[in-house]
Amino acid sequence: MDKLPEIILHISTYFVSAGIILATLRLIKGPTMADRAVALDTFTVISISLIVLIACIAGRVIFLDVGMVYAILSFIGVVAVARYIEGGL
Amino acid sequence: MSWNSLLGSIITLLGSIFLFLGALGVYRMPDLYNRMQAGTKSTTLGTMLTLLGIGICHYEWLGQVLILIIFIALTNPISSHALARAAHFKGIPLTAKSVTDKLKEEESKAEVL
């Protein structure tokens, strides 16, 4: 009973990893380039949650900074890919 | 076992279920626009819930986690809007089951005028 929060955090890590696998499958399968960009957007947003979950399980505060930098870079990357698809880059 | 860690872990579990359902929608939906709907809205809510749960678990991390939540809430709609706009102007078709396309109607009206 004492370890219940830790067990729940591990179960949620499994859920998040399954989501990452599904987004990766769409990233491989997607028929057009825009589908792949959507899958990449979903993939990066889910990855931020996984990074913060790992920070909580490992008890290291430095992973929060890693997640923040990852969020900024993924946002810029997705917007740049969207501009490229539109043809304005 | 402290109550705040139990509460935070349950909120985190809820958010991770939302993230999983969003990714399932990205995999299963028939169309790019439907995929974007599933993959943006539910992952925004799921990420916010997951980060909030971890912030409740560890009180000393709450400030940094709140900054991340605000950043996600500001940037995720912008990126999805840019992607949807790019896909529509590229001319990627809607699925056959979709009922209406308001942007195309507005564009045809503007061409008539």
Structure notes:
The complex is a heterodimer of chains A (89) and B (113). Chain A is mainly alpha-helical. Chain A has one domain. Chain A contains three helices and no strands. By secondary structure, chain B is mainly alpha-helical. Chain B has one domain. In chain B, 81% of the residues lie in helices and 0% in strands. Chain B is elongated and about 65 Å long. Chain B starts with a helix and ends with a helix. Classes of the chains: A mainly alpha (89), B mainly alpha (113). At the A-B interface, helix 1, helix 2 and helix 3 of A face helix 1, helix 2 and helix 3 of B.
Offer a few descriptive terms.
heterodimer, A: mainly alpha, B: 113 residues
Number of helices of chain A: 3
Which secondary-structure class do the elements of chain A indicate?
mainly alpha
The general outline of chain A is elongated
- Give the ordered list of helices and strands of chain A: HHH
This entry's quaternary arrangement is: heterodimer
Largest interface comes to:
A-B, 52 and 52 residues
Overall geometry of chain B: elongated
Order of helices and strands of chain B: HHHH
Low-confidence stretches of chain A: none
Number of domains of chain B: 1
Task: Please compute the radius of gyration of chain A using only Cα atoms.
Answer: 16 Å
Mean pLDDT, all residues of chain A: 90
Q: Segments of chain B where pLDDT lies below 50 for 5+ residues?
A: none
Portion in beta strands of chain A: under 5%
Helix content of chain A: over 70%
- The share of residues in helices of chain B is over 70%
- What is the tally of helical segments of chain B? 4
Cα end-to-end separation of chain B: 68 Å
Instruction: Indicate the mean pLDDT of chain B.
Output: 88
C-alpha-based Rg of chain B, rounded:
19 Å
Largest sheet of chain B: none
